[in-house]
Amino acid sequence: MIEIERLTKRYGATTAVDRLSFTVRPGAVTGFLGPNGAGKSTTLRMILGLDSPTAGRATVDGVPFAGRPRGLRHVGALLDAGDVHGGRSARAHLAALARSNRIPLGRVDEVLAEVGLGKAAGRRIGGYSLGMKQRLGIAGALLGDPPVLLFDEPLNGLDPEGVLWVRGLFRRLADEGRTVFVSSHMMAEMEHTADRLVVIGRGRLIADESLAEFSARNAETSVAVRTPELAALAGVLRGEGAEVDVTDEQFGIVTGLPADRIGELALRHGLVLHELATRTSSLEAAFMSLTADSVEYLAGDAR
Ligand SMILES: Nc1ncnc2c1ncn2[C@@H]1O[C@H](COP(=O)(O)OP(=O)(O)OP(=O)(O)O)[C@@H](O)[C@H]1O
């Protein structure tokens, strides 16, 4: 379990992480979402002891990670897939990691096969595509068979097949009871990947809940109706407590009543319907409006 308590990081006048508190539990994939510059990478670096907090704490199973010897057996991480020695082969890179963490060398070929790099294992990493580097970074995270895994933007550079593979892998790791914490700046990526969401903006916590809760709280459902008798139908629906936004003579958007109820009311009042369609706003739109303040702040700040 990862515990973040009032974690704060300042770089001069910039507060990258601002009194952040949340817990990441085992057995689930937790998405760590925020727009560019929200403080995700800084938080992950502090969890790994690569940056020290200005204030607050980050612990893994109750202990600051920097205090752990043979770290890869406790926490596996993919931070920056490009941060590897291009002249080495994937096998040599992982073997060096295994040696410094006292992990049996037999694990190297196991994880290379697992991420689909078995055939490319002897090639120089410098010639790898971004997607292959991501797979190698994931192999490095898996090497120590750790109970806690952190991935910073792991879907970057992966093709659709790679994205599906990563989602399956994260699901399996979580089902095995591990803690899986995955950052992204796109809700569309996390919508099909995560069970829980920690959303931050400008270094501060915006949401910490299950995807289902986030969805129920933020995704708006409305019903589009098309009818030649819109004025009459709108009157009936408003009488039932719905809001009707009349967009043109025959078309309106209804909120506050489900489509089946609208259909029944139309029938009861003898009103013809030409179209009745439920619409759910995207979670991406909800995420963007929730974090809009922090994006504006950053855009203004950069000028
Ligand atoms: N070493 C540093 N020195 C100064 N400022 C920094 C440093 N590292 C991060 N920052 C600033 O802290 C803020 C948070 O950055 P961070 O990289 O953690 O965000 P992020 O959410 O990971 O964004 P991205 O999705 O773009 O990677 C940014 O304003 C960034 O410019």
Automatic annotation (TrEMBL):
Q: What positions does the domain ABC transporter occupy?
A: 2-227
Q: Which GO terms describe its molecular function?
A: ATP binding; ATP hydrolysis activity
Keyword annotations for this protein? ATP-binding, Nucleotide-binding, Transport
Instruction: Return the protein name.
Output: ABC transporter
Which InterPro entries does the UniProt record give?
A: AAA+_ATPase, ABC_transporter-like_ATP-bd, ABC_transporter-like_CS, P-loop_NTPase
Which PANTHER family does the entry link to?
Answer: ABC TRANSPORTER, ATP-BINDING PROTEIN
Q: Does the keyword ATP-binding apply?
A: yes
Q: Which family does it belong to?
A: Belongs to the ABC transporter superfamily.
What taxonomic lineage is listed for the species of origin?
Bacteria, Bacillati, Actinomycetota, Actinomycetes, Kitasatosporales
Q: Which organism is it from?
A: Streptomyces rubellomurinus (strain ATCC 31215)
